[in-house]
Design goal:
There is one protein chain. By secondary structure, this protein is of the alpha/beta class. Helix content is 48%, strand content 13%. It is built from 18 helices and 16 strands. Strands 5-6-4-3-7-8-10-9 form an 8-stranded mixed β-sheet, sandwiched between helices. Strands 1-2 form a two-stranded antiparallel ribbon. The chain has a two-stranded antiparallel sheet with strand order 11-12. β3, α9 (216-227) and β4 form a beta-alpha-beta unit. The longest helix has 35 residues, at 337-371. The radius of gyration is 29 Å and the shape is flat.
Length: 536
């Protein structure tokens, strides 16, 4: 009899061969994107190209999805309670001479109870596990839990009103109408959410995309364990391994080997994966350390499979996918809600900056055009998130015929390519103001490691060759200002030690990011701009 696994779409048991074939068919039917077609021959195999081409869209974070459903429940319950009050209870309480729009006539007790109902509904639904992915995708599992939790909310209200002797002063019709309408609207929204969640699972956008680093029997045992978990959210997309066919077959339990360890960096930069799972045992620490030295620059979670390891570590030392244990090695920066907080921060302060600085930007653009012929704006190719090449906007500070879009030649003191206006706007950082538009487009962040030019070098050596782990600074979006800049590391880089210090500060920022740190950097940036020692 064929081994049964849990279908991630509807939670039913199906033969594992069918589940794997379904996922691999979807991946193999994808056509390679333009970016993949431009990869040099031999850098990735055909199978790796096909899989990577399917993994170019962003996933939907399960934590964010659950958080949004909680917020929706709170808003719906609270709004319904207040609306029933406005359209039934309040008109009965109005007396002659009080206008319907007079907010002073609102009984605040009802508003408070409505908001409390929203909070209690979320608490009881959480206690009933109504926000888990397995529950959200199955309407049959949701309905009973939802109605039970909603009933408990009104049991709490009834008991509270009895003990505080408020049952006579509050409208019973209001409670009844709120209970019935709330149960109905919560049920309807869950039907819609359930269909949406199943669609996301079918598209492979709600599961965390995982790559196994290392094949063989240990990887096969891990796959069996993961597939037996009804609530696990990992989608295995393939395997990378250096070993030969005998020790690590080209297809393991239906999943293909996509390449060797060296191919992982290319694969991780051209597609969007969430996790690397190292399947080697903890005893192979030297081998694991060598791999991590190269892989930690990718913006992904890196986990070490603890399945089958006979170590008596504390439970808190592990993270779990279902009941399968993992050791957390490296966490993806700015994941889940952190990403949204960062983006909201960028949009809010960038919008304010554009409104306040628009007159200055117009004057700078006019000065650039009057000082020398050519356009006011200048585009330069730089590294963005995960080594993606982006076009960064600046006010032109050089003579148009001497422009250096690739930044192959570093600007130095008294550089003859720089115009009179260019010298001033470079010293005062006014040339960077158009980069607020890059922030709005999502290519840059307001705060982050500065975007370096693709061909940036020092002492005839590219920076990626000078600094070990240089590309790790690209695990987050680059920023207009950053931790290195407010610590005096801005402007010309004259030697290898200067770029080393700048990268160290960038990595410190990534590892210690918080909204408060961004606010501090934002506040300090205008004061640090006054230091123009290395700005030419």
């Amino acid at each position: 009899m064929s081994e049964q696994v849990v279908d991630p779409i509807n939670g039913t048991s199906i033969p594992r061969e069918q589940a794997v074939a379904r996922m691999m068919k979807r991946l193999s039917e994808a056509t390679a994107s333009d970016e993949l077609q431009n990869i040099e021959a031999g850098e990735l195999g055909d199978e790796a190209r096909r899989v990577a081409s399917q993994l170019t869209d962003d996933n939907v974070s399960p934590r964010v999805l659950a958080g949004l459903v909680r917020l929706l429940d709170f808003v719906l319950v609270t709004a319904l309670g207040f609306l029933v009050y406005l359209f039934y209870v309040r008109p009965l309480a109005l007396v002659d001479g009080v206008a319907p729009v007079d907010l002073s006539s609102i009984d605040l007790r009802y508003a408070l109870i409505a908001a409390s109902g929203g909070v209690l509904a979320v608490i009881f639904l959480q206690a009933a596990d109504s926000y888990g992915l397995g529950t959200l995708r199955q309407m049959s599992r949701q309905l009973g839990r939802l109605l039970a939790a909603w009933t408990f909310v009104f049991m709490v209200f009834a008991i509270t009103a009895f003990f505080f002797k408020q049952s006579e002063s509050l409208s019973r019709v209001w409670f009844g109408a709120w209970f019935l309408s709330g149960g109905l609207i919560l049920t309807l929204t869950r039907v819609i959410i359930s269909r949406y969640v199943r669609k996301l699972f079918r598209d492979g956008r709600l599961q965390r995309r995982a790559i196994l680093v290392g094949g063989g029997e240990r990887a096969a045992e891990l796959i069996r364990s993961l597939e037996s978990q009804p609530e696990q959210d990992l989608q295995i997309c393939g395997i990378f391994d250096d070993r030969d066919e005998k020790r690590s077959p080209s297809v393991l339990m239906g999943y293909p080997k996509l390449g060797k360890f060296a191919d992982l960096l290319v694969f991780g930069r051209i597609c969007k994966i969430d996790m690397l799972v190292v399947t080697f045992p903890l005893t192979a620490e030297g081998r694991v350390a060598d791999m991590l030295k190269d892989l930690w620059v990718l913006p992904v979670d890196i986990r070490l499979s603890a399945h089958g390891n006979k170590l008596n570590l504390r439970p808190r030392s592990y993270s779990y996918v279902g009941a399968v244990p993992f050791l957390d090695i490296i966490d993806k920066p700015l994941a889940d809600w952190d990403y949204f907080k960062k983006r909201a921060f960028d949009l809010f302060f960038t919008s304010i900056a554009l409104v306040l600085l628009s007159p200055v930007m117009l004057l700078v653009a006019l000065a650039v055009r009057l000082d020398s012929s050519g356009p006011a704006l200048f585009r330069q190719t730089r590294y963005g998130f995960n080594n993606e090449k982006i076009s960064v906007l600046k006010f032109r500070s050089m003579y148009h015929h001497m422009a250096d879009p690739a930044a192959k030649n570093v600007v130095t003191r008294h550089d003859p390519r720089v115009t009179r206006v260019g010298r001033f706007i470079r010293k005062t950082t006014l040339d960077e103001l158009p980069q607020f538009l890059n922030v709005l487009r999502g290519e840059l962040s307001l705060i982050g490691p500065r975007p370096h030019a693709v061909h940036a070098h020092t002492e005839n050596s590219p920076w990626e060759a000078v600094v070990d782990g240089y590309f790790a600074r690209h695990r987050v979006k680059p920023g207009i200002s950053g931790w290195a800049q407010i610590n005096g590391l801005r402007g010309e880089i004259r030697n290898k030690e200067m770029i080393q210090k700048r990268v160290e500060h960038d990595l410190y920022y990534i590892e210690n990011w918080s909204v408060m740190l961004d606010l501090y950097i934002l506040f300090m940036t205008p004061f640090k701009i006054l230091d123009t020692r290395n700005s030419y």
